[in-house]
Structure formats: structure tokens, C-alpha cells
Amino acid sequence: MASYTFLMDVGNVSLTDSEVTSLVKISVTGSGFSLVGTMLSLCLICFLPVTSDGMFILINMNISLIGAQLALIGAENSFESKMVCKTATAVIHYFFLTLQFCSLSFGLHLLSKLKSPRFLEKFHKRVIVLAICWLPSMIVVGLTATLRGDTYGSGTLCWLTPDQGTRWAFVGPTLAIQLVNLNIFGLIMVTRFAMDIKRNYGLRRVLKNQVLTAISLVPVLGLMWTLGLATTFGVGKSVQYLFVAFCSTQGMWIFLGHVMTNGHVRRLLCIKIKPENENEEEASITNGISNDVTYVSQISEFVEQPRD
């Protein structure tokens, strides 16, 4: 099995055999935790259920993450057959790119709530979400397989080779999405900070809100993939270890850092635990404001009125 460093390496990484083995072990272990986290997130979202646009994007993100990690784990059994290896490469390429575009979709979702546009109905918004999440990666994979078919899945492992710049078909879109999401993240953090200052919060509370907001948003915006730059440019082996550790466990971070701290999820979970208050509480939530960011970062510009 390849480690996560293989995904972002364009031929500049020089690792010893022991380091590669360690990174593979971290990737396998982390993927196990991530799969548990994604399944818990999906079960919780479907059990409650949560119908906000943010959680709809999160469902797509978790599905793509499950597909990506299962494909990466299973690709090690595809070495002997050239055609199967090419297919495995296409599947890995597609699902990991879809994961990146899901992160972009979530970032654009937050940005749209900051600007508060009201010209799209929920159905149309979700069609756009599905298009952003799943279609661009399909186009990139199709073009790569067509234009670089001779190098597609022809390396020592079932992944894009660095020959003729083929691996940039994944690294390029990923870095571009990271740049967009980093700017959105910075805008949200500044907005959170400005609101806390306006409300005359103490320094301790301001810093706490900043940290908790960052913990909530980093996994869903996929910002840990920024650490992959160390792999892309072959610098900072310690950063490469952090990159593998955080990215391979992304599903668990999404569950702990975003789903379980989401105010809407917590309120609905309380309803399920206390069914005697079900009718009154459900009416309150249906007519109230749902928070798509997190319980600890309720920025008024980001919330939306449910339109069920």
C-alpha cells in the first residue's frame, strides 16, 4: 500500500525504506480511524436526521472519503494486472479529487452564507453542490486517462506517475482548492474575531472561540492537505509525517471537530435522548435558526432559516 506522501509527491521526495514503511503504517492505521469516524458521522446525520445544506455537503464528503481510503487500501492487490492497476489508479484519483472538491463546495457554502444570497432554492443549491463535488473530478480523471494513458497507473504502485507531469493532475487541483479554502478560512476567522471584539468579549473567550472555530473548520475545509506541500517540494520530513497523520485520519477529525460540536446536531441529539419534549423542541428547531458552522462559532451571517 502507498502512504499519503505518494499522493502529493511529484518526484522530489527522498525517503529511506524505513521511513516509507513507517508512513505506510501511519496511513493504514489512520485510515482505519478515519473510516470509523466517517461511518459515525453518516450514521449520526441520518439518524437524527440533519437536513441543513452544510450537512448535505458533509454527507457527500464522507462518502467520497470512504471511497478514497478503501480504494487506496485495496490498490495494493492490483499490481500484477496492468488493466486492474490502471482502473485502481482511476478510482483513487477520482475519489481523492472528489474529496477535495467537496471541501471546496463546503468553503463556497460558508462564503455564500457570509454574503447571504437568497436567490437559490434549496433544491437548486443542492444540485449545484452535487455538480461541484462529483463532476469536475470526473472531467480531470477522464482527461488524464485520455492524454496520459501510457503513464496512467504504470509506476511501482497503482497511482499517477511523476513522468511528464502526470501527477500534477491531482496535485494541481488540490493546491488550487487549498488556496481558495485558506482564503475563506481566513475570512471566517477574521469575521469571528471582529464579532467577538464588538461584543466586548474578554481575551480568553476570544482566543477560545478562535481555537474552537479553527478546530471545527480545518477538517471540513481539508486544510491539512496544505501540509502536503512539504511532500510536493521534498522538504521537511517531520511535516510529511504530520501530513500523513492528519490526512489519513481526516474522517475522525470531521466527526470529532465538526459534527459533534455542531449546535444543530447537539440539539437534535438531545431531542432523541429526551423524547418527552420531542414535539415542543422540534417545533422550536424547525422555526428557528440552524447553525451550519459550529456551536462555538455562531456567526450570524453564516446561519440560515430552514426551508423544508
From TrEMBL:
Q: One of this protein's GO BP terms?
A: cell surface receptor signaling pathway
Query: What are the GO MF terms of this UniProt record?
Result: G protein-coupled receptor activity
The G-protein coupled receptors family 2 profile domain sits at: 20-262
Compartments where located: Membrane
Q: Please name the InterPro entries in this protein's record.
A: GPCR_2-like_7TM (IPR017981), GPCR_2_secretin-like (IPR000832)
In its UniProt entry, the species of origin is given as: Crassostrea virginica (Eastern oyster)
Q: What is this protein called?
A: Adhesion G-protein coupled receptor D1-like isoform X2
Bilayer-spanning residue ranges: 26-48, 55-75, 87-106, 127-148, 168-190, 211-233, 239-259
Query: Which keywords annotate this record?
Result: Membrane, Transmembrane, Transmembrane helix
The protein's superkingdom reads Eukaryota
Cited Pfam families: 7tm_2
Gene of origin?
LOC111134861
Record GO cellular component, one term: plasma membrane
Q: How would you describe this protein's topology in the membrane?
A: Multi-pass membrane protein
